[in-house]
Amino acid sequence: MSAPSPDRLDQLRAPVHWQAVDFISDLHLQPGEPQTFEVWRAMLQRPVSERPDALFILGDLFEVWVGDDVLASTASTDQAFWRACAEALRVFSVHTPVYFMAGNRDFLLGAQGLNACGMHGLSDPTTFDFLGQHWLLSHGDALCLADTDYMHFRAQVRQPAWQRDFLARPLSERTAIARDLRAQSEARKHSSANDPSLWADVDAAAARAALQATGAHTLIHGHTHRPAVHALGDGLQRVVLSDWDAAAHPPRAEVLRLDAQGLRRVPLPLS
Ligand code: MN
Question: Ligand 1 mean position to 104 CA, how many Å?
């Protein structure tokens, strides 16, 4: 089966035979949350006849990614988990193309990691031509302009020089940094800082401008953990993906399906 690479890193044209594609984001897969991993792996293990024609992962698939060498090294105690993630994707990708756009948690996934997972990398944003229309795909963090501290941080860590310096550190040091970040994240779960409704949201004017620049009518993004459809005027809209947490009450695990009937949310069976 052909698995088309993007014409450019920021533009993908669907082959004419594609009828349905699925979008997911913000799974935040991590060793300490096996339930979400199992629901996701069961989705990937569906028979080919029950799959979409392509799977798009729009960022924050992983809670953290400290470098592609986690897949090869035995220095990381989490290694088996990351390898299991890569293997599930690789096996799925044999029959179904997978496209990956980096989020703010997993932007250090590099060419080796993409290859190990059988995924094609996409730039943020990417224009997707499908069903005779243009769709704009993004993680979403670059559009949350009100969070100026984060925008400053993002500009720094997306620089090749910063990434080279970080990845040159020993894996044990990078893993320790990630563990500290996870501990801080756990602490935030017990504070208001973990309430997504208090996070900076996508800037409406920036979303409109991005759509108008690309001729797309609908922006599909994640990051904010606030699944919704927002009208932006002039027939433009943004559709926000849900994050995943299979252990939450109620659990969250769904794909956004796009086919000739339009966009709809499809909850996944819980394992
Ligand atoms: Mn994010």
Answer: 5
